[in-house]
């Protein structure tokens, strides 16, 4: 195969131009997200939690949870859900195929007794029994045989009595008033809002892994959450919690295997009364990912998000959600592939003596330079988006992380993203 | 390649300049905010303490003035914290201090600000002090005019100020505004509207309930139910028999809050024969709340023949009607119909557990 002598220079120049333009597009999306967040902050009331807590006009919410065992982590998660402040809420816990010892533990912990609730019509895992707690907590437990995630959620939705369902990730942190904040968009537009996604950057971690995740979180918040919400294309994002109307879930025939897939299915249903399904954003830290303490934890978090994206794409096809899925796949799969390929070509060109100093300089600017500036811009735009200024020390740490991110982590993350998309 | 390098360099250079500028600004803002927070953390507890002493009778306004310096807003913030925590003479004394310290005048000035956030803060403050007559006289009709403000939050804060001003002629306008607003705004005005229930029940509420627009009637009913207080409203009969099940269910929820009469009882019993689950469940709750022993046979029927939702509502209502309701529940707990038996047993178990543990 005869390649022209300057093939590497031609390819790498094109790649550099593409990566620079991608950086400009990223900045545009982050800026758009910043404007959306400012608009939302201006529109949203500063208070009302206590008023909502007392009012019988606020719809009841069933918080759904699925546990496979009675480990301390699982029980702590359920206790955290029970401590959520809300006027009329219940926890519907699905115990998937529990062992005898696990079953006993749950029975002892919440003093469960048989319930008269009958399972509904959504396709779910086979229900063995339904229990209610005798403690002064509103809790229903559905014991099922094993099944998929969607079947477990559907079993919980079948037993739930409230018009609104809530989903929190066990691995996320959420404050006690999360439900009171999340419900607001549904009260502002009860007919039009079918779902609410809420989340925002949590406290910055002390470790380097935590700071790198802090940058990732800000980019997600501005771009994937607010940027998409500005174009009414919001879907669940890492760290977010979800509220969804129960009737909408019944209309689409039940939950899908993940919050992202479920919202994509909701958006595809025919618009009721000429109004498309509106998914509202609550851009507050009502739910956020726990800050990773090590690189391994960070790897798991990045990969989990990538798995969800890959799953949604396989199910919906690239055309899902107009431009949103293709944009996400382009951003989180194609660009890392192109960039990683460009590094390899650059190394090969350098070894064969075809890489000039100008070419190396161009590639460094297009990859490391653009990446650093996009991350720094995200931190600066977050400051513009929120009324309260951040702690100056935190700001400096984030800017430092944005510089160091490109020196090693960016390249490693590219590999994680590629492997996460194709891996199981 | 050199041309591309120039383009990329120019783009990134421009970008880097912007980022550097923004970083500088953000850092300066963060530094200022940190200093401000530190100052607040230092002076606000002292202002709070001095205001508490002022409520108790101390004449320490000069001390507060000196402490706050040019930062009147700090006094305003601390004053606003007292909302809902003080009443009567203590509240009046705080309001008087707010005038003497120039805080009310500051809020009045901010109501003309172009920034809606400033206007919101100003009306929130005014809503707290307008119950005090001198403050009301001072602020004039600012709050009333702001009911037409472009910002929804300002309108809600102004509506609260109007409702706290104890001028009944203006309440109807706020009630109408609440009916036209979204559910969230209505919920946020519930407490203030509730306090003015008596004057509202004289005119605007009967008009809203008896009007021809069912949507408006429903909203008015939901507001009244949310008040959770006794109302001097007797003409509920038409609504208890309304053809729209949502209106009927809300009227049933309101029935225990209005003076009892035989017609209402008959309407509740009639609703317990209704097949619509929403109407039946609302009637069951109303019967339990009004302790209608005459409803027990119909509740028992609902527990035997109703849907799962009706069975649960009927069982819960029977558990609230001892001793005959409990006796009916005990009988039905051994019913051959499994769903009936389970619902009855669960309600009985809850009642016994409640009785045992209070």
Overview of the molecule:
- Chain A is built from 14 helices and eleven strands.
- Chain A is of the alpha/beta class.
- Chain A has two domains: 7-40 and 323-422, no CATH class; 44-308, Alpha-Beta Complex (Spore Coat Polysaccharide Biosynthesis Protein SpsA, Chain A), CATH 3.90.550.10.
- In chain A, helix 1 (7-43) packs parallel to helix 13 (357-385), helix 8 (208-230) packs across helix 13 and helix 11 crosses helix 14 (392-422).
- The radius of gyration of chain A is 23 Å and the shape is globular.
- The two termini of chain A are 36 Å apart.
- In chain A, 50% of the residues are buried.
- Among the domains of chain B are: 45-166; 261-358, Leucine-rich Repeat Variant, CATH 1.25.10.
- Chain B is extended and about 80 Å long.
- Chains A and B meet through helix 1, helix 2, helix 7, helix 13 and helix 14 of A and helix 1, helix 6, helix 9, helix 11 and helix 14 of B.
Q: What is the count of β-strands of chain B?
A: 0
Distance between the first and last residues' Cα of chain B: 82 Å
Question: What class would the helix/strand composition of chain A place it in?
Answer: alpha/beta
Q: How many structural domains can be distinguished in the coordinates of chain A?
A: 2
Topology:
The complex is a heterodimer of chains A (424) and B (358).
Chain A: H1 7-43, H2 49-54, E1 61-67, H3 72-82, E2 89-96, H4 100-110, E3 112-114, E4 127-133, E5 139-144, H5 149-159, E6 164-167, E7 172-173, H6 178-182, H7 184-188, E8 193-198, H8 208-230, E9 241-245, H9 246-251, H10 259-268, E10 278-282, E11 288-289, H11 295-316, H12 324-351, H13 357-385, H14 392-422
Helix pairs in contact in A: 1-8, 1-12, 1-13, 8-13, 8-14, 11-12, 11-14, 12-14, 13-14
Chain B: H1 2-55, H2 61-68, H3 72-81, H4 88-100, H5 103-110, H6 116-129, H7 133-139, H8 142-145, H9 152-164, H10 168-180, H11 183-195, H12 197-202, H13 204-210, H14 214-227, H15 237-240, H16 245-254, H17 262-271, H18 277-289, H19 296-305, H20 308-319, H21 324-332, H22 338-357
Helix pairs in contact in B: 1-2, 1-3, 3-5, 5-6, 6-9, 9-11, 10-11, 11-14, 13-14, 14-16, 16-18, 17-18, 18-20, 19-20, 19-21, 20-21, 20-22, 21-22
